[in-house]
Amino acid sequence: MALKNDREYRNFASFGIETREEGAEPTYKVSGYASTFAPYELFEVDGIKYREQIEPTAFDEADMSDVIFLYNHQGMVYARQKNGTLGIGTDDHGLKAVADLSLTEQSRQMYEQIASGLVDQMSFAFTVAEDEIKKDSKDSYTRIIKRIGKVYDVSAVSVPANPDTDISAISARSAFDGVIESERAERLAREKELELAKAKFRFMEV
């Protein structure tokens, strides 16, 4: 954890890298979780463990008006909400980010770093509007973040902290998985309607 002018950073680990299918054109899109709602251990000092947990409602009133996608919270902007190349939002698991890294040569290089597994952590920078410290036991404390004030960036990083977060390169096949499933469901529904119509017609003939 790091603090700078009340801005906090969380570096997260263990990206499940999904490389694109062999021979498929890259989509240059990545997705993953920059934060999760399960408690995780930040560090341990003199045998005392310090944990942190972000409540699922912590992002409800957060300012996420123009979050940017960086590497290690600094330098070049690879994607951002303002131009539509970055989307973020929460679900039951945590804060999810989807970034299109196709616009510049540098962003495409960032995609390759992620797709190859060379960069496999994630983080986000934010301010806290409300929190509390809970003593779990004599050797364990948990900081519960109840409200987040502002999210500044989501970043690919090199230092892990929370093993429950992930990011992956979206392959050409996986980008269409939702469409394929939708088409399959529609086809099955049409086939079922046709069978019902045939059965009704046969019943009328009798």
Low-confidence stretches: 12-23, 172-176
User: What class, by secondary structure content?
Assistant: alpha+beta
The overall number of domains is 2
Care to count the β-strands?
12
Largest sheet: 8 strands, mixed
Outline: extended
Tell me the radius of gyration. Answer: 22 Å
Total DSSP helices: 3
* Average pLDDT: 79
Amino- and carboxy-terminal Cα gap? 76 Å
Residue share in β-strands: over 45%
Helix proportion range = 10-25%
String of helices and strands: EEEEEEEEEHEEEHH
Task: Describe the overall structure.
By secondary structure, this protein is of the alpha+beta class. The chain folds into two domains: about 1-170, no CATH class; about 175-205. Helices cover about 20% and strands about 45% of the residues. It has three helices and twelve strands; from the N terminus they run βββββββββαβββαα. The chain has helices at about 105-115, 170-175, 175-205; strands at about 1-5, 5-10, 30-35, 40-45, 50-55, 70, 75-80, 85-90, 95-100, 120-135, 140-155, 165-170. Strands 1, 2, 4, 5, 6, 7, 10 and 11 form an eight-stranded mixed β-sheet that branches. The chain has a four-stranded antiparallel β-sheet with strand order 8-9-3-12. Strand 6 and strand 7 form a beta hairpin. Residues about 10-25 and about 170-175 have low confidence and may be disordered.
